[in-house]
């Protein structure tokens, strides 16, 4: 690999950044960062009907959220038409391109004719030697070699060879004066100094065409790598139901960006059997080799597992800062990071995303009157006997001088021992009384968080249920 590595990510702003695009962006970013090179963004906004500024903004926001910083300012294709046209003019001047007056209907008929003969449908080169000039309805076509092969060594798929007979004199400037997509991409990648083009393999058929344009312009051809698309868990095209979602939706669901990055990188790249990578490790290991040529299937459970891992290992203040907006959304706008930092350790082991974590705080942040009691837990635990124990525990707790974890734990134990009970006779009713459901954190943690007054209020409320 050459020492200078310059990559780019070139999204079309026709929608939010999806996980397939995000994975491509991560690969390009990692390759540049690994080699100490540069990583650029190019907004391919030439489809005026479908491109929207709000999607560009959203893509940039998702890139930032993922931690993928780019060099310089993003480049917008719509601002570069003159650059592309100058290249087309150069090709016309050097005889590598020619004007074509064939109408779309004529070209369709040529394709039909070829197809009928069992040949590849293509333009038959009618205007190739006509020396036509500019004119109403004239497009410009590239004069490709008559015979030969286009060969390139794909970083992912290995050597790819395409016979020239598979290609035709492609249009490089349409009759309306607009350069075509492949023309623009070549001019941009060259002008931006791109050395490595990593992209989805839906573009693999564009690459031989782009190589022919590079050659006609006498420009160095970059290295190409085409990553296979991400499949659904059923190994079919990834559908919305199976996770073909926008990065922003994962963000809104409470995923951590480092979990999504780690997950997406492993979907198509490996380093031994290591599963969990810090960003620094990824940058140090990712050199563009070990990219998988076989399509990988999306596994939502593994993503959740990774996310749970990152949530457990995040420093508490960082976790609290990230969780607080979700707590606000869950209906507790007054909760601040300090409060969230108190609650997070009680629930973080059991939550697999920030949203679930925030939701789990609900019974502790609501007041006694708003605790929602699960009816089957109430029926099971708050029986007559259960309620008697709730009352009993309440009586000893209200006398506690220092109402903290150690003391509440001690009196709860004493209540069990002094009355010759088993903990499972006392724990569940107290738990349901305090939280409204079975399960959840260690009871003394819950009581210490609620404080004496609120604990007593909830226990009394449950004692009086029937
Ligand atoms: N704009 C293209 C896309 O979104 C990217 C093309 C390329 O990377 O060359 O698929």
Task: Please characterize this protein's 3D structure.
- The protein is mainly alpha-helical and 466 residues long.
- Among the domains are: 80-227, Rossmann fold (3-Layer(aba) Sandwich); 314-361, Helicase, Ruva Protein, domain 3 (Orthogonal Bundle), CATH 1.10.8; 366-463, Arc Repressor Mutant, subunit A.
- 48% of the residues lie in helices and 10% in strands.
- It contains 19 helices and 10 strands.
- The chain has helices at 19-34, 53-66, 81-93, 104-116, 181-191, 206-217, 247-252, 257-266, 279-285, 300-313, 316-329, 337-347, 354-360, 362-365, 375-381, 384-398, 405-418, 423-435, 443-463, and strands at residues 6-9, 38-43, 75-76, 97-100, 139-142, 149-154, 158-163, 171-173, 196-200, 223-227.
- The strands form 4 sheets. Strands 1-2-3 form a 3-stranded parallel beta sheet, with helices on one face.
- A hairpin with a 3-residue loop joins strand 6 (149-154) and strand 7 (158-163).
- The longest helix is centred in the last third of the chain and has 21 residues, at 443-463.
- The model has no long low-confidence stretch (mean pLDDT 96).
- The structure holds glutamic acid.
- Glutamic acid (GLU) binds at residues 10-12, 44, 185, 199-200, 203.
- Glutamic acid is lined by residues 10-12, 44, 185, 199-200, 203.
């Amino acid at each position: 690999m050459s020492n200078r590595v310059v990559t780019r990510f070139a999204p079309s702003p026709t929608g939010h950044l999806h996980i397939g695009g995000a994975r491509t962006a991560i690969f390009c970013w990692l390759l540049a960062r690994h080699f100490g090179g540069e990583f650029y963004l190019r907004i391919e906004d030439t489809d005026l009907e479908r491109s929207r500024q709000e999607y560009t903004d959203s893509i940039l926001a998702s890139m930032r959220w993922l931690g993928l910083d780019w060099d310089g300012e993003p480049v917008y294709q719509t601002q570069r038409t003159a650059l592309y046209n100058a290249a087309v003019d150069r090709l016309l001047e050097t005889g590598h391109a020619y004007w074509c007056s064939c109408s779309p209907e004529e070209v369709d008929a040529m394709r039909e004719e070829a197809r009928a003969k069992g040949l590849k449908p293509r333009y038959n080169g009618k205007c190739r030697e006509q020396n036509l000039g500019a004119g109403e309805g004239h497009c410009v076509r590239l004069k490709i070699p008559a015979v030969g092969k286009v060969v390139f060594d794909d970083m992912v798929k290995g050597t790819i060879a395409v016979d020239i007979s598979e290609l035709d004199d492609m249009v490089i400037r349409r009759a309306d004066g607009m350069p075509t997509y492949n023309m623009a991409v070549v001019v941009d990648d060259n002008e931006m100094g791109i050395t490595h083009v990593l992209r989805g393999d839906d573009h693999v058929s564009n690459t031989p065409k782009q190589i022919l344009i590079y050659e006609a312009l006498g420009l160095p051809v970059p290295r190409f790598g085409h990553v296979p698309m991400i499949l659904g868990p059923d190994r079919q095209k990834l559908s919305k139901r199976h996770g073909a979602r926008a990065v922003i939706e994962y963000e809104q669901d409470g995923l951590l960006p480092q979990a999504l990055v780690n997950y997406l990188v492993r979907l198509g790249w490996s380093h031994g059997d290591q599963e969990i990578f810090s960003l620094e490790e990824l940058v140090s290991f990712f050199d563009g080799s070990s990219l998988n040529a076989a399509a990988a299937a999306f596994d939502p459970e593994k993503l959740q597992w990774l996310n749970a891992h990152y949530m457990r290992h995040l420093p508490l203040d960082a976790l609290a800062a990230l969780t607080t907006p979700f707590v606000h959304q869950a209906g507790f706008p007054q909760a601040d990071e300090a409060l969230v930092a108190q609650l997070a350790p009680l629930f973080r082991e059991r939550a697999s995303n920030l949203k679930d974590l925030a939701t789990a705080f609900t019974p502790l942040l609501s007041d006694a009157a708003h605790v929602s009691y699960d009816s089957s837990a109430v029926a099971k635990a708050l029986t007559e006997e259960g309620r008697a124990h709730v009352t009993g525990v309440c009586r000893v707790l209200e006398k506690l001088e220092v109402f903290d974890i150690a003391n509440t734990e001690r009196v709860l134990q004493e209540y069990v021992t002094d009355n010759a009970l088993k903990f499972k006779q006392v724990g569940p009713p107290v738990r349901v009384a305090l939280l409204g459901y079975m399960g959840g954190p260690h009871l003394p943690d819950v009581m210490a968080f609620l404080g004496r007054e609120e604990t007593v209020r909830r226990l009394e409320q449950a004692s009086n249920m029937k």
